[in-house]
Amino acid sequence: MMEIDGLRKSYGEKVALDGVTFTVGSGEMFGFVGANGAGKTTTMRIAMGVLEPDAGEVRFDGHRLGFADRRRFGYMPEERGLYPKMKIAEQIAYFGELHGLATAKARKSAADWLERLGLADRAGDHVQDLSLGNQQRVQLAVALVHEPEVLILDEPFSGLDPIAVDTMADVLAERNAAGVPVLFSSHQLELVERICDAVGIIADGRMVAVGSVGELRRKEGRRFLKVAVEDAPTGWADALPGKVVGNDDGALLIETDDDQAVLAGAVKAGRVTHFGWQEPTLVEIFREAVA
């Protein structure tokens, strides 16, 4: 388990982090979301020891993080930390050795990850000759080559096409299944909603919502009844208990506490083709949380 506890960080009068606290458990995929400048990268850099907090600490399995712990972590910065004129396989193996792997094992692991990420045929190429998406795959291989106990990834899906996104998501899910805590930031909220066990929303250096997507839906967002009635007369919903708040492709979105009365009114109005609760998406929850 990795614990982020009360992190504070300021640059002069600019407060970058204001008591940031959350936990990423064993085998948990934690999506860290927020606008540009909200504090995501600063939090991750503190977790990796790149920055020192003004207050608070980061713990792993109950003790304060040290160099030996971080050496067992896998880190993927938003800015690619690769040597552009170094061959791909050599570079991945080199980073594996920096994390303590023997040379032979580092080379074997590098080859395995290149195969897994679909880059085996580019092993002898230089990083600068790859597309941005393939450079992102190499960066992920660098983060994974030493079989890390924790993964911290800053915008790992940035610049990837849909197939590459699926590949990376599958790899992270595999690491999760092996018990590895995964913390990653992303602006792709639909993806976060799809693959994450838990989500943290940060705004202006403060955590404004933390929990599973289901918990955040119940806590932070409203839910509506989505009702579609074929051949219903105009204004059929005017007398229903609640308030019509929108129209979704011909279906009414109704905010109400009496779903049975709405159903009875819909049946009376015509043939009901859709009836069910519609919960807010993570995008809607994000907008409400940071407002």
TrEMBL record:
InterPro entries on file: AAA+_ATPase, ABC_transporter-like_ATP-bd, ABC_transporter-like_CS, ABC_transporter_ATP-binding, DrrA1/2-like_C, P-loop_NTPase
Parts forming coiled coils: none
Question: What keywords sit in the KW lines?
Answer: Antibiotic resistance, ATP-binding, Nucleotide-binding, Transport
Q: Which GO terms describe its cellular component?
A: plasma membrane
Q: What is its main location?
A: membrane
Tell me the first and last residues of the signal peptide.
none
Keyword Metal-binding carried by entry: no
Q: Which PANTHER family match?
A: ABC TRANSPORTER ATP-BINDING PROTEIN, ABC TRANSPORTER ATP-BINDING PROTEIN NATA
Taxonomically, which superkingdom? Bacteria
Family matches, as SMART domains: AAA
Transport among keywords: yes
Q: Where is the ABC transporter domain?
A: 2-229
Q: How does it sit in the membrane?
A: Peripheral membrane protein
User: What GO terms are given for molecular function?
Assistant: ATP binding; ATP hydrolysis activity
**What organism, scientifically named, is this protein from?**
Phytomonospora endophytica
This chain belongs to the protein called ABC-2 type transport system ATP-binding protein
Q: Which GO terms describe its biological process?
A: response to antibiotic
SUPFAM superfamilies recorded: P-loop containing nucleoside triphosphate hydrolases
Write out the annotated subcellular location. Answer: Cell membrane
Q: Which family does it belong to?
A: Belongs to the ABC transporter superfamily.
